[in-house]
Specification:
This protein is of the alpha/beta class and 287 residues long. 54% of the residues lie in helices and 13% in strands. It contains 13 helices and 9 strands.
Length: 287
């Protein structure tokens, strides 16, 4: 089974690299950044000039691109080359309504489609230990599970098309709220003379222990805002979550506060920084 991978950005580069290393057939890759394509070619992938070349050659087409409009644009471009022999897996984080629209578009051509967004960030993408949340037909899941497991060790089928991406949006909204709680309480603790290390250790002893603090304490202590997951991407996800809550008539005060902070970060031109840089916004230390 030949695999195609479109989108070799921060996450896609490492995800596709794991497929190249572990899959026993050809892996075709494409990206607007030709330097990224060359990186994967050096690992053994087949470089493609464009997305259409990937679609023509691959049995399974995987996409990992930034936004809803990019996903829709890619699959609209590929639609003439999609037929019943193809399986399409979108691993991007986008608006669930757009994902469902693309699913219907692909299925109308007789092909199969799964939304399979990932959780965790660059280190897990490198290690192949991502969490993967899948929305697809029940009979498709056992077919694609071995493929997505090249990239992740925790894989769960949430339900039919749209449920994987919906869960991802809920997950990232929760991450943002946890992050904001860390920003506030860590800011208070340090003002009262408690070090970042002692704060993190003490939190790990109790019910407030959380993955975000455990994984980011060194970066927060060292004020390292090097991007693994950008503020603009988390802003996108928080904005989608707010849209979903409004559609359901469900008020989420915590989410609304988080969105206000991320809006401020975007206004200040911090979008390309890592999303942990919201610590500066909450604590009034923009640098």
């Amino acid at each position: 089974m030949k695999i195609g991978f479109i989108g070799l950005g921060i996450m896609g580069e490492s995800m596709s690299a794991n497929i190249v290393k572990k899959h026993d057939d050809k892996v075709y890759v494409s990206d607007l950044n030709k330097a990224q394509v060359e990186k994967l070619a050096q690992l053994g992938a087949v470089p493609c000039e464009n997305n259409v070349e990937v679609a023509k050659n691959a049995d399974v087409i995987i996409t990992m691109v930034p936004k809803s409009e990019h996903v829709k644009g890619v699959y609209t471009e590929l639609l003439p080359y999609i037929d019943s022999s193809k399986i399409c897996i979108d691993m991007s984080t986008i608006d669930p309504s757009v994902s469902l629209e693309v699913a219907q578009m692909i299925k109308a051509k007789g092909a199969q489609f799964a939304d399979a967004p990932v959780v965790k960030s660059k280190p897990a993408a490198i290690d192949g230990t991502l969490g993967i949340l899948v929305g697809c037909d029940e009979e498709l899941f056992p077919v694609i599970e071995p493929i997505v497991r090249y990239m992740g060790c925790n894989v769960i089928r949430m339900g039919e098309n749209g449920t994987g991406i919906t869960m991802k949006i809920c997950h990232n909204a929760l991450v943002a709220e946890i992050q904001n709680a860390v920003n506030e309480t860590l800011g208070l603790a340090t003002r009262l003379g408690i070090s970042v290390d002692d704060f993190a250790t003490a939190v790990s002893y109790g019910g407030a222990g959380n993955f975000y603090l455990e994984s980011q304490k060194e970066n927060l202590k060292n004020k390292n805002w090097t991007t693994a997951f950008s503020l603009e991407n988390e802003h996108k996800d928080v904005t989608i979550a707010k849209k979903l809550s409004e559609q359901q008539g469900f008020d989420m005060p915590g989410l609304n506060n988080v969105k206000r902070i991320f809006d401020k970060g975007m206004e200040l031109g911090m979008g390309k920084m890592d999303y942990r840089a919201t610590y500066m916004l909450v604590n009034g230390t923009e640098e």
